Amino acid sequence: MKVVKLLVAILLLPVCAALTLTVLHLAHTLMSDSRSLDNPAVVAFCVGYGLWLMVFLCLPKPMRTYVLGHELTHALWALMIGARVSGLRVRKTGGQVQTSKSNWLITLAPYFFPFYAMLFIALFFLAHAIWKLDAYMWVLFLFVGLGWSFHVTFTLMMLLGVRQPDVQSQGRLFSLVMIYGMNLLAIALVAALLSPRVRAVALTQDFGHSLALAYGWTLDNLRALWHALRHFRGSGS
Question: Considering the entire predicted model, what is its pTM?
Fold first, then answer.
């Protein structure tokens, strides 16, 4: 199975390149749009994101909070595919949750699903349905930025500093490709929500164009490599 996942990961590398180009284009769109600086949602998101970076760098890291979110993410994705969940345990040094089913989505979900950011969104819209909080949307984006920054910093720390059984069990290349790609996809969707100039149709078209470029570049270079190898074998004989 790991061999199949390795092949899938290799085939998906151009998709990661296309997502990277799409996110870079979105970032350029946001930075070149002067209205973004006057958008309370954008400002609040950036403030929340930066606030957590300062906390992460300057204060003790809340490992138990991270582990709780990590294990609850496993449980949430297991429930979404119809698995049974039990035996949740949380410690500073690690945690555990038992699920009746397992696949790569359940295993890798904590590395691409920003649990606390999504929790803030769910709680805010629940409160919004009761009290109509249109004037406080900036609060939502502040906490989403905070939660997203929490997700990114801890994910990078865990992937770069500690050997993760979740990653090893799915194959390192496959895991990294899926984590990278899914995080970029989530970033693209959030950036599209924050920017009034970005629309879903334009985002899809941009990604499609980048995807065609990425696979075209890959096929052109593979073709050139194949011809070079044939020429080398021919000259050697």
Answer: 0.88
